Backbone:
């Protein structure tokens, strides 16, 4: 596997990852090195490091700060997915202890507020569906059913698109496609609800119709049906910029939904075509020097803009998985490998004592309530290390890049 990965990278002339040691230079500091580290082992490194960084801080405690949160859901889901390739009881226990801390015996979710009608609250349901067969505890199935019930009453635009949240009326955000649709599709498959696939497909289609910009080939962050929000274009209703992570959420949503979608469903080819359209647009804006993507995707090099870790990890994951599943042609492979190499070379920092960090993560971005969707807004939100919105996709990206470059292998617990 290691030889296959190095061979694929060498075809790109990216000697930094072919050679031993692997360079991980960041922040102008001397490069840290590792010897012969495979993508799967990089995923394990970041997973182990982040579990160490977080400790029990993500667990629900009365009066504590932990929340029922999509970022916690994404990280724990990634840990369980990694466990399918790297048997790691510690990671399974971390995910079980973290998500399990919120779930009481009858499936009630501590801290979950259905009245918020927030799609963000649906995303951790994927971890619930993964824990149910692992633990054989009915509380996880019952909690997943509670989240599924929210989708029955979730407010919608006039053409049927889910509002992102109650506090964002009449608005579709690309973020929301990842928050709801993979869970929605998986639930439909597990519990034989075939009509739900039509609705999942509709959500993906409406996001495409309302946010795609054919001139750039990119997708706007959000759309306001009433065109009344301060951030909305008064003619189209779209926001004004192409935020990287928003498109990353959308890309991951589509490629993950397809895991559960019936192969003979009439909407499946359209979902694949939309995914291909997004990837074709995003590829045009990959930074040629680093292989990364910018916070505001189409304005690379503009003062204040920066190469951003969460979006870059999401794009690498989605495109690698797209190639592995046959949704993208193999000529995307150099794009994926250059992006993956760029993350490791530019955004991974060796913290010493066996811990690693993912740097240059946009902490948060949204629309409304003073957030105007301008270029200045996006580039001035806080930039942090080890945001779970980057760690989770990076772990998943390593799994897919490992498969892309050769047969999957099992990493040992004693990684280099």
Residues:
């Amino acid at each position: 596997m290691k030889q296959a990965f190095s061979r694929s990278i060498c075809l790109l002339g990216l000697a930094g990852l072919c050679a031993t040691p692997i360079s991980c230079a960041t922040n102008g500091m001397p490069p840290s090195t590792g010897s012969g580290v495979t993508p799967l082992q990089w995923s394990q490194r970041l997973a182990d490091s982040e579990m160490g960084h977080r400790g029990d801080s993500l667990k629900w405690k009365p009066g504590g700060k932990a929340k029922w949160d999509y970022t916690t859901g994404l990280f724990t889901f990634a840990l369980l997915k990694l466990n399918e390739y790297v048997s790691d009881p510690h990671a399974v226990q971390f995910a079980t202890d973290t998500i399990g801390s919120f779930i009481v015996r009858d499936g009630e979710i501590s801290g979950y507020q259905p009245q918020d009608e927030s799609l963000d609250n649906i995303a951790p349901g994927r971890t619930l569906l993964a824990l149910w067969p692992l633990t054989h505890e009915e509380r996880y199935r019952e909690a997943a059913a509670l989240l599924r019930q929210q989708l029955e009453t979730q407010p919608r635009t006039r053409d049927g698109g889910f509002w992102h949240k109650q506090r964002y009326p009449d608005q579709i955000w690309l973020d929301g496609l990842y928050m709801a649709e993979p869970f929605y599709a998986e639930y439909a498959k597990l519990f034989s609800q075939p009509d739900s696939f039509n609705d999942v497909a509709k959500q993906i289609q409406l996001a495409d119709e309302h946010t795609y910009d054919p001139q750039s080939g990119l997708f706007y962050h959000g759309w306001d049906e009433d065109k009344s929000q301060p951030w909305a274009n008064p003619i189209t209703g779209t926001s004004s910029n192409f935020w990287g992570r928003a498109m990353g959420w959308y890309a991951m949503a589509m490629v993950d939904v397809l895991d559960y979608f019936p192969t003979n469903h009439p909407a499946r080819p359209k979902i694949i075509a939309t995914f291909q359209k997004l990837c074709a647009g995003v590829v045009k804006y990959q930074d040629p020097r680093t292989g990364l993507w910018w916070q505001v995707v189409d304005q690379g090099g503009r003062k204040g803009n920066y190469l951003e870790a969460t979006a870059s990890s999401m794009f690498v994951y989605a495109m690698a998985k797209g190639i592995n599943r046959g949704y993208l042609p193999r000529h995307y492979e150099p794009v994926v490998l250059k992006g993956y190499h760029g993350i490791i070379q530019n955004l991974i920092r060796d913290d010493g004592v066996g811990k690693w960090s993912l740097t240059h993560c946009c902490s948060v971005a949204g629309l409304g309530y003073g957030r105007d969707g301008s270029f200045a807004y996006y580039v001035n939100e806080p930039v942090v290390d080890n945001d779970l919105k980057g760690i989770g996709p990076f772990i998943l990206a390593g799994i897919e890049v490992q498969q892309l470059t050769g047969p999957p292998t099992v990493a040992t617990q004693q990684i280099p």
Observations:
- The longest strand covers residues 348-352.
- Confidence is low (pLDDT under 50) at residues 1-35, 409-416.
